[in-house]
Specification:
- With 896 residues, this protein is mainly alpha-helical.
- Among the domains are: 268 residues, Neutral Protease Domain 2 (Neutral Protease, domain 2), CATH 1.10.390; 96 residues.
- It is 61% helix and 3% strand.
- It has 42 helices and seven strands.
- Helix 9 runs antiparallel to helix 10, helix 15 runs parallel beside helix 17 and helix 24 crosses helix 25.
- It is globular and about 105 Å long.
Length: 896
């Protein structure tokens, strides 16, 4: 595989040798260094590069011999000793590692003037970090000055970037490696370092950088292993195995490569192969904590938190001070609902103040200690005190309904309570879920028996239906525990979206114009490759489409083979059967499944508005993006991995890395569901040519309606909207025809017709608070109190943090004689600073005066405190006798 020493006989410089090393010609480099070291007996660099070349090929004992012999000649070299700290580990001489590091420290302290070259400064900085030196000090006083002293010294850039990566500061790492690449544009180590910086936030960019690294050095094992890591996340296990084969040809003894082999064996339910791979990973360094840490990390990222935690404990048995294993164990425990994880995270923070994850978790712990806990036999619900008072009871009730429905449906028993944590700050949700504050796009995540969710307060002005989110996440609780967390991402998400739709047709995701185009285009994934669609999507729309397609696959399987077959597949997954074996076992061969599903999906797409012409207009206007139909329902993310390697995909052009001060994510604002306002519409543009297909063109109808609404030509706008609704009656999503039609009727003061359009919209949309609010207004004006209550309930399922729905529920309750519900609604309204608190207190006093005189009197006094001249309140107060007995009469009228 490696060429012989050809064409380099005249090479005389270390730069020539380093070029061989960076291009992956490790054997050639080792031979050259061995030859030149004899000639240049005063240059330790030849020996260091020779040892590095031997290490790259897994020739660990030989590398140690080179260093040991070299230290006889270069007895005061700190650089050679630093390299020897690595070779000694793989020689199984851990005591020698500490000796060499201590000697480095002693030499630097005794003769600091002798170690002022950038190369010496950098290795002394690395040594200082090993001894627990302050990372910021090392960066600012050692690494940065080394770069300034020699801007062409690559090791200083590497040391700076690697320091940032070890502390999970991906933004700083990206900055350091980007600066390095400006100097060394084809350096595989720099390309790999920048790829790692992009890994948490932009997988597409990471893959581009790794391709460049392997183009520069086709034998670059770190890049191969990062691709292995990515392939495992994408559940592309055969590809991961092939990459590992390539890596092990370069270095047959690479501990991380064998560690990944152990991961694949575990995921493949092959305990013997797992044990053997781990043994080979530890062959040369038997107490290497990095191996078990890596295996446990990847298992946790695949939701095997119990097994992952066990591997972290084994890593800590080798080295109790190994901080990466400590912080990963802390996160594993927290995802298992074990509060010991908080103490462990705090201990890591105390030991290493610059570990971003430990710092974030330590800070979050203080925030969560102020949360209120609501419990029953099945759930432990934690949320802010204010939100608990407003909708904690509603959330518990929803969770109870989900449990009653789904546990019985899937035929399982949950042995322990489910923990649900709802965060009013998006950054706190992200830290609890991923360890980092900047992971926008997620509404909720389930780890098995722990659910984390963003509250409506964290989602800006357009929150999603939080009840649908909790239902979705609890479905994950059921399926993950049923399969012992051994299910592919697509199936996990597909079932949860499917069960949303079963619970409420307005929840979940349904076919829409954008999905129609994607199904009939090139975006439909084979079922066997569907999990990868979540990892490297082309856009935010593509990840939403992955959720939709996954649910469509579940619908197809249930419809074709029956629900019991789906349950049988889940039971097989729990036993370790792979998904691509479990599906054919209970249904049909995978090729047949994929062929039939593709036809099923195509038929579903073609059934959308079959009387419409869906071809794009001749005028090359991208109406899809222009009219906002490119945004579907926000994904109910539920099985993102336990750290940042498989988080919500973002644009490949997104900036990498966490931002500890990141603002909460606010999704793009759709047009109000109750109608399109003219200041949100584009100005009337040119007419769009309609293709000669004999059908009405969807895009042209929408554009025509929008232009007419923008011009306030209400009557004319009715015609295209009538066609749209007639030919596509089940529209949902932003800018649908029902929303536009409601705007038209509103503009014409046609209240009954406006209400009819909004009621249709409300039945189809679970995230349309503006429509619900307008329906409440219309219904109240018409004394239709049942409709007021219905739409108030719909509103609360989206945003329970505003006063309007509570006022609507209270007024409806008064008129319908529902005293208990009315009292509850008014009490919650008081928590939201209502416009007229005196009126609310007075109404509560009226409602409570028979059943709870002390509380009634208190509310009367509070009403008078707000409005001292409130005559009705004075009259009611006079009706209370001395003490706190009930009023003597009930003649005080309730204001209307």
């Amino acid at each position: 595989m490696f060429a012989g020493l050809v064409g380099i006989a005249g090479a005389q410089s270390l730069e020539d040798a380093q070029e061989l090393f960076l291009s992956g010609k490790y054997d050639d480099c080792a031979k050259l260094c061995e030859r030149e070291a004899d000639k240049n007996f005063r240059q330790e660099g030849w020996l260091i590069l020779q040892a590095q070349s031997l290490l790259a090929r897994g020739r660990y004992p030989e590398a140690e011999v080179v260093v040991s012999n070299g230290l006889v000649q270069f007895s005061s070299s700190v650089r050679l000793r630093w390299e020897g700290a690595t070779t000694a580990k793989f020689a199984g001489q851990s005591n020698l590692v500490n000796i060499r590091l201590r000697e480095m420290n002693q030499f630097a302290a005794a003769r600091p003037w002798a170690y002022r070259e950038p190369a010496d400064i950098v290795v002394l900085g690395r040594m200082a970090l090993r001894f627990g030196a302050d990372p910021k000090t090392v960066l600012e006083r050692l690494f940065d000055p080394a770069i300034k002293a020699d801007p062409d010294f690559r090791e200083a850039y590497l040391a700076s970037g690697e320091l940032a990566l070890t502390k999970h500061d991906y933004a700083l790492a990206a900055k350091k490696f980007s600066a390095a690449l400006a100097k060394f544009p084809k350096d595989p180590d720099m390309l790999y370092g920048l790829a790692r910086a992009y890994e948490p936030s932009a997988r597409g960019k990471m893959l581009e950088l790794l391709a460049s690294a392997l183009e520069a050095n086709s034998h670059h094992v770190p890049s191969m292993l990062l691709l292995v890591d990515h392939s495992i996340d994408a559940e592309e296990y055969a590809k991961a195995d092939e990459l590992l084969g390539r890596a092990l040809k370069v270095n047959p003894h690479h501990p991380q490569a064998w560690g990944y082999r152990a991961v694949l064996a575990h995921l493949g339910n092959d305990a013997a192969a797992e044990k053997n791979a781990r043994r080979l990973a530890l062959k040369f360094w038997p107490a290497n904590p990095e191996v078990d840490h890596l295996i446990g990390l990847k298992l946790s990222q695949n939701y095997r938190f119990v097994e992952g935690a066990a591997y972290q404990r084994q890593a800590l048995a080798f080295d109790e001070d190994f901080l990466p294993a400590q912080i990963q164990l802390a996160q594993d425990l927290l995802r298992l609902g074990d509060a010991q994880g908080w103490q462990l995270a705090e201990a890591v923070h105390q030991e290493d103040a610059y570990d971003v994850t430990a710092y974030n978790l330590s800070t979050l712990r203080g925030t969560m200690q102020k949360f209120q806990t609501l419990t029953n036999a099945d759930f432990v619900l934690r949320m802010s005190v204010q939100e608990a008072a407003l909708y904690g009871d509603r959330a518990l009730s929803l969770l109870n309904r989900a449990k009653s429905n789904l546990v019985a449906k899937y035929g399982i028993t949950l042995e322990s309570p489910t923990f649900v944590e709802i965060f009013p700050e998006q950054k706190d949700f992200a830290v609890r879920t991923f360890g980092m504050p900047h992971n926008p796009g997620f509404l909720g995540v389930c780890f098995g028996r722990v659910v984390t969710a963003n509250s409506p307060a964290s989602q800006g002005g357009n929150p999603s239906n939080w009840e649908a989110v909790l239902w979705h996440e609890f479905c994950h609780v059921v399926t993950l525990q049923m399969t012992k967390n051994k299910m592919p991402r697509w199936l996990s998400e597909g079932i949860s979206v499917y069960e949303e739709l079963q619970a409420n047709p307005a929840w979940g995701q349904t076919m829409n114009p954008r999905y129609r185009e994607m199904v009939l285009g090139e975006d439909l994934k084979p079922v066997s490759e569907l999990s990868s669609a979540f990892l490297t999507p082309k856009s935010d729309m593509h990840v939403q489409f992955a959720y939709y397609q996954s649910a469509l696959v579940v619908e197809y399987l249930v419809g074709k083979f029956g629900f019991e077959k789906l349950k049988a597949i889940l039971r097989d997954l729990a036993d370790g059967v792979t998904i691509n074996d479990a599906i054919p076992k209970h249904t049909a061969p995978m090729k047949q499944i994929e062929k039939e599903f593709a036809a099923f999906a195509k038929a579903r797409a073609e059934a959308l508005g079959p009387g419409l012409d869906w071809s794009k207009p001749v005028a090359e206007v991208d109406l899809l993006s222009r009219i906002g139909l490119g945004r579907g329902r926000a994904p109910r993310v539920a099985d993102a991995p336990a750290n940042s390697t498989n988080v919500a995909p973002v644009s490949p052009n997104a900036s990498p890395g966490p931002d500890t001060n990141a603002l909460a994510h606010t999704p793009p604002s759709p047009l109000p569901a109750s109608g399109v306002t003219t200041n949100q519409l584009p100005s009337p543009g040119p007419s769009v040519t309609v293709p000669a297909s004999g059908k009405s063109n969807y895009w042209s109808l929408v554009e025509t309606a929008r232009r007419l609404i923008a011009a306030k030509d209400w009557q004319a706008a009715k015609a295209p909207l009538a066609v749209l609704i007639s030919l596509y009656p089940d529209q949902s999503g932003p800018n649908n025809a029902y929303a536009m039609l409601a705007t038209v009727h509103h503009g014409l003061n046609e209240t009954s017709e406006e209400r009819a359009a909004l009621e249709k919209l409300a039945a189809l949309e679970a995230d349309a608070p503006d429509a619900y609010l307008r329906l409440m207004e219309i219904a109240e004006a018409g004394n239709d109190w049942k409709s007021v209550a219905q739409n108030a309930e719909r509103f609360l399922a989206v945003n329970p943090l505003l006063p309007q729905p509570y006022r609507g529920l209270a007024r409806a309750g008064e008129e319908l004689g529902q005293t208990a519900a009315t009292i509850a609604a008014y009490r919650k309204l008081l928590l939201l600073d209502p416009a007229d608190p005196a009126d609310v207190h007075f109404r509560l006093a009226q409602l409570l005066r028979e059943s709870d005189a002390p509380s009634a009197k208190r509310h009367v006094l509070l009403a008078l405190e707000e409005a001292p001249r409130f005559r009705a309140a004075h009259q009611l107060l006079l009706e209370f006798p001395a003490g706190n007995s009930s009023p003597t009469n009930s003649t005080t009228p309730l204001p209307r």
